[in-house]
Amino acid sequence: MSPARAWFLAMAIFVACYPSLTEATTYTVGDAFGWAVPSNTSYYQTWAADKTFVVGDVLNFTWTGTHDVADNISKADYDACTKVGTVLGSPVLIKLETNGSQYYICTVGPHCSLGQKLAITVMASTTNSTTPSPSAVAPSAATSTSKSIDLLNLAVLLFVLFG
Length: 163
Ligand SMILES: [Cu+2]
Description:
CATH superfamily of the largest domain: Cupredoxins -  blue copper proteins
CATH topology of the largest domain: Immunoglobulin-like
Order of helices and strands: HEHEEHEEEH
CATH architecture of the largest domain: Sandwich
Bound molecules: copper (II) ion
Radius of gyration: 21 Å
Oligomer: single chain
Helix content: 25-40%
CATH class of the largest domain: Mainly Beta
Shape: elongated
Low-confidence stretches: 128-149
């Protein structure tokens, strides 16, 4: 293989793989600890501190025992641990649909005031220009479609180079 062809092949593979580098991330809230009453009240803020959440990412709340997740709550309700509407069952997958602040609490007993609460800031997606409107296409369908197209592009490029 000539150096020029090798370089072109490397670029083709990079372009084909690039969308997978920018795909949505699913975060398991609390990682291995999961969604529970933490040992300190800043546990989930520490967990979130080193992460950048982007529209399209997914929060995965998983737990054992008795917990729940209330989302779409205000900062005031978050601060005061006001018990508002809940989502039940584990795991709860919440797709981040809009940028800005998002608040989540557990409404069981005193769990929220003991620190089972999460506040995050969601950044606008950087791939909006190439991503179909979320309301028009289901996210999983959009992802698999773009992957298929990328693989097709790669196959065509390999055929052109070596066929
Ligand atoms: Cu709880």
